Automatic annotation (TrEMBL):
This is Putative dehydrogenase. PROSITE patterns: TAT (PS51318). GO terms for molecular function: nucleotide binding. Residues 279-300 are annotated as: Disordered. Gene3D superfamilies: Dihydrodipicolinate Reductase, domain 2, NAD(P)-binding Rossmann-like Domain.
Amino acid sequence: MIDRRSWLKGAAATGAGLTLFPNGASAARRLSPSDRVNIAVIGAGGMGAANMERLTSQNIVALADPDFSHVAKAFVDGKGQPIQSRLALKTAYDRAAKYADYRRMFDTHRDIDAVLIATPDQHHAVAAKMAMERGLHVYVQKPLTYTVREGRVLNDLARRNPKLVTQMGNQGHSGDDGRRVVEWLRGGAIGDVREVHVWTNRPIWPQGVARPAAIPAPAGFDWDVWMGPSTAGWGYNPLYAHFNWRGWQPFGCGALGDMGAHLIDFPVWALETGLPTRIETRHSPWGPSDRAEDTPPGDGRGSYPLATMTYFEFADAKGGPVRLVWYDGGLMPPSPHGLPPGTVMNPDGGVLYIGSDGLLMHDTYGQKPVLMGAGAAERAAAIPQSLPRIAGGIDGHEMNWVRAIRGEEAISSPFADAVPLTETMLLGIVAMRAATPIEYDGAAGRITNNQQANRYLDRTYRKGWEL
């Protein structure tokens, strides 16, 4: 493998006009609105294909995935018939260079401007940091990182390289409805908000279950690359890959990591909460295990609990203290006083804000907001638009990244916003692993009442996959 110094030397020699960032990374190619962006995708099937389907107007130059038989399934329906809407994507994928290991792609491919990362969570920060150190713009699926420290590393790298365009894949942040929710809350449509309830129907994959025995990985599936930075040392089983990995601690961040970026986003954004100061998680049992090898660094857990409730306290929120409660696994908040008769909370997920002068409720991604309470609708109607709208709304989140790279539009969900949101979500998992309430000093990035719990803010990396 080419080391970083050799790569930079080669880039300087072959990339005419490239400059170097202060940290030694090569600067991204300057693009005009008429240019097409050269994009590589890491994790090209599943969500990666869904993201890239909206980017076929650009040049898809490289793919990195340990299982291209899985990638191929993104182009056919349940009956094995071609998906007509993805024919352009399939053509672009067929033309792109292909790598099992993204480290090899970064070492050898020279015409990349930007990288979209849609891997399991354990890879997100490692892949993003590699890309950013090479001067490449990045779009990273949610949750942005697997640990708190990883988020701070990426945010620091983004701050030191402001020309890099960064985006997290929480597309609701680009939606018109969600932005109107933020304007209503900040404008006082329901008065002061001190209490928020957030819920989701996730997990929709196995959780709270025992780990299965390992079986041989399918032919062509590079399981070692799929494991990446994880030190768990588990063998392959389809109960982990490709979708079910979210429920297993060595690979994913459970329901909170999956949907928090789509739901917690809006109260954190609108109420300017800052980082939480106290967090406690209650939950059903962890997945049972009697296997000695089920001991990744930390608390030795395997499968996340089936259902959790996490209590976040934001003592330093801009408008005064806020308490937010997260529910998953089918749990729902109680019906508040003032909820009109017949009003149903969407069991698929939503957010309920309890204000001094009314209620506001919306679905996942900030969609379908409803105001409740005397005068709330009238007050909301008088609140002017103050946030810019993103072309295409939710469906334009990926192209917003491209347009921002070309200097046409401000980025929607940069790491400066995505990192604190992700940190908030991950602290719920830290509190679950700590099995105790935690008090958090956001400025220092430290848990102050349980020193042992600080180990859950970081992780150990497998050799060759270090951050």
